[in-house]
Amino acid sequence: MDYFPKIEPYDSGMLDVGDGHSVYWECCGNPDGKPALYLHGGPGSGCSPSQRRFFAPDAYRVVLFDQRGSGRSRPLASESDADLRTNTTAHLIADMEALRRLHGVERWTVLGLSWGTTLGLAYAQAHPQRISAVVLALVTTTTRREVEWITRDVGRIFPREWDRFVSAVPDTLRHLPLVDAYATLLFDEDSAVRERAAREWCAWEDTHVSLAPGHRPNPRYEDPEFRLRFARLVTHYWRHAAFLEEDQLVRDAPILDGILGVLIHGRYDVSSPLDTAWRLSQRWSTSQLHVLDDAGHSGESVAVVIIDALNQFATK
Predict the structure, then answer these.
(1) Which residues are catalytic?
(2) Pair 60, 115 in one domain
(3) Which of 83, 109, 157, 160 has an alpha carbon 20 to 30 Å from 72's alpha carbon atom?
(4) pLDDT band at residue 1 using 50, 70 and 90 as cut-offs
(5) Are 233 and 265 within one domain?
């Protein structure tokens, strides 16, 4: 599968967004091109150079940024004195609006993957007048029902791995939902406790996305700092159901009617079951759902449809 050629940013910087946070951003492509915004997954994964390659460099002026606490933004969620109280969906939406104003964008095309689909939907529903089109791949809405599925129910598919995941929680925390127990362990005063919790959380993350043929372990989980940062942010957002009302993003999907949307989801994606994308497509009249029979929570065929959708929106 051919992505667009590797590309370097033509501009980058740090934006002070308040609350002690500075967000890293970069601009790639054509400075006079169609504005676009990329939203990474996780939460907490940060952006990578490969994600610049979804966008036709002659057609798009794309802004990528590392969400609060991740990547090159500061402070990192992995720091010893990390405080996540000012890291919520509402804060991230405000950061995106600050970036839009910084770059003089009136409306832009939004691409989100995985957690980035939850964030993209929340942003688009809060500011539909700022959206020209939306592409969402590996669709999630981070409801409590979805979090319970991914931390408990999907264990029926991976019983051995789930048993290890549960066994890492001490008896004193077994009364809590798993996501709350792990969130507690990840801030334990004992660094060995924090490290074990981060390692086991990320091992489970790599398990529930592994159903599609050809899956390989993600090398990013080999980095202890990344594991802690990622696990802290994921559990923070999951235990609060993305700081949204239950089923809010599907309920309010008609707000986006009139905005073109492409939803892309793999049949083998058991970490984010297809029914979420399906329900969203039924409520959003100007969206199209692409179900890929050879993909899970990633895959080359997903990237093919993403690039095709962005190419079509580049001229609209």
Answers:
(1) 114, 269, 297
(2) yes
(3) 109
(4) low
(5) no
